[in-house]
């Protein structure tokens, strides 16, 4: 059923009796043309674009839990394309363009809200860096606006401009950035892919790969063997575990990142604001909760919950930039496990094993990448060629010296 | 997390800086490489590739806000339980003894 104002009215008049589940719950078939392992945002988007852009409909998404239970439903929902390096910016800009048309193409209200993102700066040097980044963005067809202190005071009068240690001097704004309702992205892609014939198989854990004469020809799962001509893995924080089953060691560490939501408040924060002198970012959800976060905890973790020192650090960042939030009460907090790569950039690439493809290394910035990642991974799976904007995302880039290190922090995942 | 420092007793993990897998104690030895390509591969592995297990992990923690010693902490990364803590210098010495 197509969702629209008419379907809502019609079902409303019939006491909402006739709504159907948004996707089927099929038994896995014995074989498919392609399998995507991982029903997070990236896996579901890949399946949708494989079906809609490449006509591959005999495919399945295999998810060990329920879709949306991973990072796609745990993130702080920020989307933006304010990257600096050529290998990254074109990719993230493609992704942002796809967000702009997403709801129409999947017929689902994902609450894509381009309310703008502002990265604050606190010194002349940071202003120069912001100008450089803004110019790089504009050269790649993205938008960027430099705000001085006066402009910023109009938009965010509540900031601590006169902070003694880190006075706020302005910000780099991307008006087309914003936030999206994260679980609606998983559900929307799942429903749209399902309508095109994709099997979404939940509660089915991939436990190994079926190898025949050096090729990957499918997966072993908790619900039996499923064969496929091509297998694409997009399991975020579980990447090393899953690819380890194919004997691969990767330039990835798994780390925990926490997120925080306050009680619902009247609208106060107009878009996304990020602190420039510490790690803190905040926005306000449509329900009114302040959604914020900061650094990763910094040690290897698969625990999906963090520790208190980082909670303190995040709250200190928040208090330094907007002291008013000290009065808000915290409602919920949780953690998600991220695939932190050695240079902070992702991988969308073939592996050395024919038939096996990898999408990983998204660190804590992969939500905004969801449509672009799905688009480019589908392109790779369907055509065996890297998409133009994802050519830099190779697994062997550390060996070849072509690392893509936005921060210039080196091979230390907890610094990216 | 509370780390049982072998010399100082129980310390809050917040006093430490985390580096990563304790395999980094075992840097490849250029003198032992049979071929430059092998050395490149060995260093690439050493610098960039990680086992990244879910479960028991030996890792390097630096007591930055304490006695500035390096520790090898054996930890269950799926539960945050700390199983044992040793001085990295002891671990390194023991491994040298073993390889002799
Ligand atoms: C707290 C937090 C805040 C974040 N904030 C932002 C943000 O503001 N902006 C942004 O751009 N990004 C953000 N991110 C990052 C972003 O959420 C992730 O990079 C992105 O969601 C990862 O891709 P995914 O959606 O496919 O992952 P997931 O949703 O984690 O999907 C992976 C799926 O694979 C499944 N899986 C694992 N192992 C197996 C197996 N063996 N067999 C079958 N299935 C398996 C998992 O169950 C999971 O559902 C944040 C992350 C966290 C944790």
Number of helices of chain B: 2
Using the coordinates shown, work out and report the CATH topology of the largest domain in chain A. FAD/NAD(P)-binding domain
CATH architecture annotation name of chain B: 2-Layer Sandwich
At the first level of CATH, the class of chain B is Alpha Beta
Question: How large, in whole angstroms, is the Cα Rg of chain A?
Answer: 21 Å
Polypeptide structure, described:
- The complex is a heterodimer of chains A (416) and B (100).
- Chain A is an alpha/beta fold.
- Chain A has two domains: 5-77 and 182-251 and 343-415, 3-Layer(bba) Sandwich (FAD/NAD(P)-binding domain); 113-179 and 253-341, D-Amino Acid Oxidase, Chain A, domain 2, CATH 3.30.9.10.
- Chain A contains ten helices and 18 strands.
- In chain A, the strands form three sheets. In chain A, strands 1, 2, 8, 9, 10, 11, 17 and 18 form an eight-stranded mixed β-sheet that branches. An eight-stranded mixed β-sheet of chain A has the order 5-6-4-13-14-15-12-16.
- In chain A, strand 13 (272-274) and strand 14 form a beta hairpin.
- In chain A, helix 2 packs across helix 9 and helix 3 packs across helix 9 (370-383).
- Chain A is globular and about 65 Å long.
- The model of chain A has no long low-confidence stretch (mean pLDDT 97).
- Chain B is of the alpha+beta class and 100 residues long.
- Chain B has one domain (2-99): Folate-binding superfamily (Folate-binding fold), CATH 3.30.2270.
- Chain B contains two helices and six strands.
- In chain B, the strands form two sheets. Chain B has a four-stranded antiparallel β-sheet.
- The longest helix of chain B is centred in the middle third of the chain and has 13 residues, at 36-48.
- Chain B starts with a strand and ends with a helix.
- The relative contact order of chain B is 0.23.
- The model of chain B has no long low-confidence stretch (mean pLDDT 94).
- The A-B interface holds A 238, 240-241, 244, 249-254, 298-303, 307, 309, 342, 398-399, 411-414 and B 1, 12-14, 18-21, 40-41, 44-45, 47-55, 57, 59, 61, 75, 77-80.
- The structure holds flavin-adenine dinucleotide.
- Flavin-adenine dinucleotide is lined by residues 37-43, 62-65, 69-72, 74-78, 205-206, 234-238, 242, 257-259, 293, 336, 338, 362, 364-368 of chain A.
- Flavin-adenine dinucleotide binds at residues 37-43, 62-65, 69-72, 74-78, 205-206, 234-238, 242, 257-259, 293, 336, 338, 362, 364-368 of chain A.
């Amino acid at each position: 059923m197509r969702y629209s104002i008419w379907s809502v009215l019609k079902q409303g008049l019939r006491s909402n009796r006739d709504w159907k589940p948004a996707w089927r719950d099929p038994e896995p078939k014995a074989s498919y043309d392609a399998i995507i392992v991982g029903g997070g945002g990236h896996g579901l988007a890949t399946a949708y674009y494989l079906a809609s852009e490449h006509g591959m409909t005999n495919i399945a998404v295999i998810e060990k839990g329920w879709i949306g239970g991973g990072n796609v439903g745990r993130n702080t929902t920020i989307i933006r394309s304010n990257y600096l390096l050529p290998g990254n910016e074109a990719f993230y800009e493609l992704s942002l363009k796809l967000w702009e048309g997403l709801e129409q193409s999947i017929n689902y209200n994902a609450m894509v809200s381009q309310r703008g993102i502002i990265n604050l700066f606190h010194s002349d040097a940071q202003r120069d860096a912001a100008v450089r980044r803004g110019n790089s963005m504009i050269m790649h067809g993205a938008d960027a606006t430099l705000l001085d202190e006066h402009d910023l005071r109009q938009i965010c009068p509540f900031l601590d401009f006169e902070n003694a240690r880190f006075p706020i001097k302005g910000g780099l704004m991307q008006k087309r950035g914003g936030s999206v309702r994260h679980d609606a992205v998983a559900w929307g892609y799942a429903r749209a892919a399902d309508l095109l014939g994709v099997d979404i198989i939940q509660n089915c854990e991939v436990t190994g790969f079926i190898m025949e004469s050096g090729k990957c020809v499918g997966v072993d799962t908790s619900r039996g063997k499923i064969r496929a001509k091509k297998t694409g893995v997009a399991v975020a924080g579980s990447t090393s575990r899953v690819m380890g089953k194919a004997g691969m060691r990767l330039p990835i560490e798994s780390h925990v990142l926490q997120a925080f939501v306050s009680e619902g408040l009247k609208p106060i924060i107009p878009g996304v604001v990020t602190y420039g002198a510490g790690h803190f970012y905040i926005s306000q959800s449509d329900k009114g909760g302040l959604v914020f976060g900061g650094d990763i905890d910094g040690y290897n973790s698969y625990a999906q919950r963090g520790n208190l020192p980082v909670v303190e650090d995040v709250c200190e960042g928040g208090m330094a930039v907007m002291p008013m939030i000290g009065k808000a009460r915290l409602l919920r907090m949780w953690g998600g496990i991220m695939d932190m790569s050695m240079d902070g950039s992702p991988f969308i690439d073939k592996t050395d094993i024919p038939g096996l493809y990898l999408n990983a290394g998204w660190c804590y910035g992969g939500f905004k990448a969801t449509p672009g990642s799905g688009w480019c991974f589908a392109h790779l799976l369907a055509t065996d060629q890297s998409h133009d904007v994802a050519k830099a995302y190779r697994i062997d880039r550390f060996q070849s010296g072509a690392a893509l290190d936005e921060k210039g922090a080196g091979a230390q995942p907890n610094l990216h | 997390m509370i780390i049982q420092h072998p010399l100082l007793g129980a310390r809050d993990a917040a006093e430490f800086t985390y580096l990563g897998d304790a395999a980094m104690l075992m840097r490849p030895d250029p003198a032992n490489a049979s071929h430059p390509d092998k050395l490149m591969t060995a260093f690439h592995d050493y610098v960039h590739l990680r086992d990244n297990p879910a479960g028991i992990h030996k890792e390097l923690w630096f007591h930055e806000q304490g006695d500035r010693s390096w520790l090898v902490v054996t930890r269950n990364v799926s539960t945050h339980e700390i199983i044992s803590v040793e001085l990295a210098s002891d671990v390194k010495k023991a491994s040298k003894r073993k390889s002799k």
